[in-house]
Design goal:
Helices cover 83% and strands 0% of the residues. It is mostly helical. InterPro entries: MS_channel_1st (IPR049142), MscS_channel_TM-2 (IPR011014), YbiO-like_TM1 (IPR057485), YbiO_bact (IPR045276). This is Putative mechanosensitive channel protein. Keywords: Cell membrane, Membrane, Transmembrane, Transmembrane helix.
């Protein structure tokens, strides 16, 4: 009983310390240079958003691990056995893969969106500002990229957690084919506009 109490106090203390550190980091923000903010208007906001979400998830994981360790300390759950058996290892592997997928998706979206927003930003290098048509096309590209990256990320995540995405892919293919037949003129106009602008 005394040993379980001591371990519980140690676990709660460590979890509170780590959670407090993460909370302080969440409250902080990254500040980019004025020139970088002019070139990439949404980059600072986007980076702070990603970092805040990642730290909040890390804090939730710390609390979850602390709860499991507390249960293990009182003999209600064998945490270390769970970690070393198939179920625990599989859960950790899945979480790591999900974290990597979300990380690279966020990096890819941030880079691509920032490049497009740089073209839309106020001129600071003597480069002529894009015209109304170019701005429309660039905004369209940004929105299309958001949809594409989000869709691919969701599909990969569903596959990682064991969902069979083959029917979803088949349905998406059929829907895309139907839309393509109904939007041939729109697609042709967009492609024509791209060649005119670039």
């Amino acid at each position: 009983m005394m040993g379980a109490t001591v371990r519980s106090l140690a676990i709660v203390g460590a979890a509170a310390l780590i959670s407090g550190i993460l909370s302080r980091w969440i409250a902080k923000t990254i500040t980019l240079s004025p020139q970088t903010q002019r070139s990439y208007p949404e980059l600072q906001k986007r980076l702070n958003g990603w970092i805040s979400v990642a730290l909040k998830v890390a804090r939730i994981l710390v609390v979850a691990v602390a709860i499991m360790l507390l249960l293990s300390a009182w003999g209600l759950f064998d945490f270390w056995n769970w970690m070393h058996n198939g179920a625990g290892q599989k859960a950790v592997d899945v979480m790591i893969r999900i974290a990597l997928i979300l990380f690279f998706s966020a990096i890819g979206w941030t880079l691509l969106a920032s490049l497009i927003e740089n073209r839309l930003a106020s001129d600071i290098h003597g480069r002529p500002l894009p015209g109304a048509r170019a701005r429309t096309l660039l905004t369209l590209f940004r929105n299309a990229l958001a949809v594409i990256i989000s869709t691919i990320t969701v599909m990969i995540l569903l596959s990682e957690v064991g969902v069979n995405i083959a029917p979803l892919l088949a349905g998406a293919g059929a829907l895309g084919l139907a839309i393509s037949f109904g939007a041939q003129t729109l697609v042709k106009d967009i492609i024509t506009g791209i060649f005119i602008q670039f």
